[in-house]
Amino acid sequence: MVKSAPVVKSVLRKIASILLLLLAVLVLNFVLIYAAPGDPVEALVGEMGGATPELIAELRATYGLDRPLWQQIGVYLGNVVQGNLGHSLYYDQPVTTLIASRIGPTLLLITTALFSAIIVGTILGVFSAQRRNSTLSHFVTVLSLAGFSAPVFWIGIMLILILSVSFPIFPISGMSSSDGTTSTLGYAMDVAHHLVLPALTLGLIYLAFYSRLARTSMIEVLEADYIRTARAKGLSRRSVVYKHALRNAILPIVTFAGLQFGQVISGAVLVETVFAWPGLGTLAFDSILRRDTPTLLGILFFSSLMVVVMNLLTDLLYRRIDPRIKTS
Amino acid sequence: MFTIFSATHKRLLPLIVAAFAASATLPAGTAFAEPKQGGSLTSFSTGYRTLNPGVQSGAATGAPGSQIFAGLVTVEKDYEIAPYLAKSWSVSDDQLTVTFDLVEDARFHDGVAITGEDVKFSLETVKANHPFGRSMFGSVESIDVPEPHKVVLNLSQPVPGLMLSLQPLLMPIMPKHIYDDGQDMKKHPRNMEDVVGSGPFKVEENIPAERLTLVRNEDFFIADRPYLDRIAYPIVKDPLTRVLMLEKGEIAYAPFSGIRPNDAKRLENVDGVNMTTDGYDAIGYIHYLELNLRDKPFSDRNVREALAHAIDTDFLSKVIFGGRTVPGTGPLHTGNPFYSADTPHYDADLDKAASMLDEAGYPKGENGERFSFTLDIPSWAPQAHVPMAEYIQAQMAKLDIKVELRRAPDFGTWVKRISSWDYEATMNGSFNYPDPVIGMHRHFDCDNIKNVIWSNTQGYCDPEMDKMLDAAAIETDFEARKKIYADIQAKAQQDLAMIYMPQDFSATVYQDGIGNLPDSPFGGLAPLTNVYLED
């Protein structure tokens, strides 16, 4: 009980700094997009196939684009505080509705890719750390180098070429088939079938990262004094590796997983575009191309919110895993 | 176009259409077979913001829109106008009154009968909301509906391209009982949700991020049509992914496929996959080098001619585009009904170009350059514009003109530069549309020098040209009109208002086993009423 006061205080301080951070993000995003040449109405009108100056002026007034910058920011911030992220110029829908309709597919893709990558990557890393000069260890090194350096859209296209065109196992794109399957199970299977390639593409990038991270972290920990002590106590190898070493080696992985999960959208943009996955990534891509400023701002805000929230959660998770943080 | 079409009864039309289809040239590889009912056709879409072609131009809305909505007429092979919702029509001698008789038992997808009031409402809506509304229907002064199935258009002056504009792509018949509720038509929610049309297919599923699925309209006013049970349009934005889907057959029919000449070669080698460049005549997608005529050096016609002598469009189309496209000879596409090849041609001749520049007062300076300029490259057709711009840059270097290429990161950036006239030169392209009044006049009219993209942004103005354009706009005799347009094309090329590049490589990719693909000059933007799948 005595201890809770500082915790509450630190949480409150954290929340205050988060709110300030989000405010800064909002203003900065707004100004950056405002500063870019061209405005959404011109893009919109161009896409309609040209229009009269009257229509352009009318649309500008409708969307408040004829007002000075500070007024536009003021209106925008006021709306965001009330939970209103604005109205998409292109889709003509509330931005919150748009984001809500696209977040599901993105979360499905990201969680599948990220969790498979973390699990497989950690296992690979742990194994290769124990036998540093084994074939597996070299394989992990090469894999992570390749995964790091190859552009994600290239990996995607290559996987399509191999696993959809040469050996037609998986569909090339989309999230479900258009043949109108009605049963829930059938639909789930269909989505899972479509999910494999995009998740694999994204997963390979993460896998490269986590296997490398797990390997380095594990090697470091295995050389620590307390591991020598544990070995000297006569504990089994299994117990040393999994109980003592892994628990410590996993800390950086959790940190990065938290950070990366926050960056879901940036990772998803290219993969979603290549595989026509109907998520936030394609929405972000489209809104950039179409100068759909409210949607773009909404996605940017949403993704910064994700980063902040995931950081907070990682922090809390950390406290559970690592008792040292609780006491310090 | 001005004869009175005989009445075509609901039961008669299929026979006529079938006879028509049999006589038409079918795409290579299509066997003559008895059309049959059923089957699902997969096309694709790059994404659309509305399904109502009455308020939005372009292929993304037009391709499915022409299936969902019917029009008064259809445009068949060789621009022949055929009855659709209008079973017949007549034009008064002074060309100022056009009377339509409508099919009597046609219904919207929600079961409500289609009447002249819907036609009137649709035309007024298009006139007020479509980007081409004014150029298509600006001269329609009033519309009368003397009987439920009779519509009379009263014109202030003859409109030679009127019938072409009455197809579903440009003037879809929209349900008045749904749209006439005072809401802004451009933003009407029913353009995307629960869309009620009048065409051969109904919307079954519209998930803008994923796919659009259309199903057969069982109650279509043409008996036993359409043949297909459904058309699916999965959203595929990435061009490479699209090529692979075409190759594998995941997309069976892709008008406006957006493939590059290199992809065409690859796809042609795939068994069961065919490619055609037919079906793009009416859209008439042309490319050009647009020079800002307000400032030196491009305000000088001789400089422009020097550039024209340096840019070998023959070489571009043969070598860079693999011979899959032809050089542009003027402002009209070779497939346009008013196209004329009889225009000034500037032979590839670098020496001549150099001496013309010397004479124009642009000799090689001390820095080894005559002058330099920035060439903008828009974001929307990189497959065409990037190779063109790079070629121009290389050719200009031979003339000691330094060209800096500036690729626009997105559409808005480029639009801003060009529409505010804040550029020196840009690669550009536009659609002719079959009637030059819609697609061509906008680039040449003195009145249309506006801060609007695809207007007369380069700032070309010539009183003689204006006079010819005005005359062509109201000339109803086809041959006389064609003659005026021939002069206009020659004049445009003489003045070098723009330097024309090879025409666009537009291609439709389709699988074996699809019968009766539309042979309209509008290709995939025409209704797919008669398309069927072979066994």
Structure explained in plain terms:
The complex is a heterodimer of chains A (328) and B (535). By secondary structure, chain A is mainly alpha-helical. Chain A folds into two domains: 4-81; 95-327, MetI-like (MetI-like fold, Orthogonal Bundle), CATH 1.10.3720. Chain A is 79% helix and 0% strand. Chain A is built from 14 helices and no strands. Chain B is α+β, with helices and mostly antiparallel strands. Chain B folds into two domains: 13-278 and 508-533, D-Maltodextrin-Binding Protein, domain 2 (3-Layer(aba) Sandwich); 285-500, Dipeptide-binding Protein, Domain 3 (Dipeptide-binding Protein, domain 3, Roll), CATH 3.10.105. In chain B, a hairpin with a 3-residue loop joins strand 8 (201-207) and strand 9 (211-216). Mean pLDDT of chain B is 90; it is low at 1-31. At the A-B interface, helix 2, helix 5, helix 7, helix 11 and helix 12 of A face helix 6 and helix 12 of B.
Entry summary:
Chain A has about 325 residues and is mostly helical. Chain A contains 14 helices and no strands.
Give the arrangement of secondary structure elements:
The complex is a heterodimer of chains A (328) and B (535).
Chain A: H1 4-35, H2 40-48, H3 53-62, H4 69-81, H5 95-130, H6 135-149, H7 152-166, H8 184-222, H9 225-232, H10 237-262, H11 264-275, H12 280-289, H13 293-321, H14 323-327
Helix pairs in contact in A: 1-13, 5-6, 5-8, 5-10, 5-11, 5-13, 6-8, 7-8, 7-11, 8-10, 8-11, 9-10, 10-13, 11-12, 12-13
Chain B: H1 13-23, E1 40-42, H2 59-68, E2 73-76, E3 80-83, E4 86-91, E5 97-102, H3 116-129, H4 133-137, E6 140-147, E7 150-155, H5 176-179, E8 201-207, E9 211-216, E10 230-234, H6 239-248, E11 253-254, H7 261-268, E12 273-276, E13 285-291, H8 301-310, H9 313-320, H10 350-359, E14 371-377, H11 382-398, E15 401-407, H12 411-419, E16 425-431, H13 436-439, H14 463-474, H15 478-495, E17 499-500, E18 508-511, E19 514-515, E20 532-533
Parallel strand pairs in B: 1-10, 14-15, 14-16
Antiparallel strand pairs in B: 2-3, 4-5, 5-7, 6-7, 8-9, 9-10, 11-18, 12-18, 13-16, 13-17, 19-20
Helix pairs in contact in B: 8-10, 14-15
